[in-house]
Amino acid sequence: MVEKGYRVTKAHTRRDALSLLDRILPDLVILDGRSLRFNPYRFSRSLRADGHRVPLLLIIPTDWEIEKGSGVNVHLREPFTARKLLNRVGRLLPTISDNVLRVGELVLDLQQRTVSRGAVNHRLTPKQARLLEVFMRHPGRVLTRRFLMEQVWETDFVDDTRTLEVHIHWLRKAIEDDPRHPIFLTTVRRVGYRFSVPTGRGTKGESGTS
């Protein structure tokens, strides 16, 4: 995988996997059911229940039965070739030209660093765009201040979060009708922030990329 240009991070236990998912933004999770010491279907259901939308590929032995509704996107049954694995991975990963994120009525153009709602369009700074990207890739989830600082500013120093709060203020001015009473980007007291699209505001294509 590494020689094909993919950056791979391994986790050997369920706890390690959950810890990594809270600290990084993987484009894909591969579960090897042949060697796991925990139930991959229970794990995938838990991820979906917690709001994780990351694509899941599960490698399964020949005699396994596939469980429907588990949240797994693709199953790969052994035996298989390396080429077949890479083909499955390629179909699940966003393409290099995939620079637009859509969540409900909000559209973020990562290349142009613009966010739009209908005919209203705003240009963002690099940090603003990165912060909004993190939120839009985790719709409905409560993201802690530490998580946001790590993802956007690459630091775990959270004694002073004024920079984060200023950027949240700017984003609200760009996406909210009334920044003083936000409905898209809300504060979860003593924890962090949640980005979500209220029911009935055009959630078609939520969390997808195009």
Structural description of this entry:
The protein is of the alpha+beta class. It has 2 domains: 2-92, Response regulator (Rossmann fold); 100-209, Winged helix-like DNA-binding domain superfamily/Winged helix DNA-binding domain (Arc Repressor Mutant, subunit A, Orthogonal Bundle). The protein is built from 6 helices and 11 strands. Strands 7-6-5-4-11 form a 5-stranded antiparallel sheet, covered by helices on one side. A hairpin with a 2-residue loop joins strand 6 (114-117) and strand 7. Helix 4 packs across helix 5 (145-153) and helix 4 crosses helix 6. The model is unreliable at 202-210 (pLDDT under 50).
Report the major sheet: 5 strands, antiparallel
- The low-confidence runs, each spanning 5 or more residues with pLDDT under 50, are 202-210
Question: So what's the CATH class of the largest domain?
Answer: Mainly Alpha
Beta-strand proportion: 15-25%
- CATH T-level topology of the largest domain: Arc Repressor Mutant, subunit A
CATH superfamily of the largest domain: Winged helix-like DNA-binding domain superfamily/Winged helix DNA-binding domain
> How many domains in all?
2
- For the secondary structure, the number of strands is 11
Q: What does the radius of gyration come to?
A: 19 Å
Q: Which structural class best describes the helix and strand composition?
A: alpha+beta
Helix content: 25-40%
Q: Report the total helices.
A: 6
* Distance between the ends: 25 Å
> What is the element string, with H for helices and E for strands?
HEHEEHEEEEHEHHEEE
Supply the CATH architecture of the largest domain: Orthogonal Bundle
Any idea what the shape is? elongated
Give the mean pLDDT.
Answer: 85
The largest beta-sheet arranges its strands as: 7-6-5-4-11
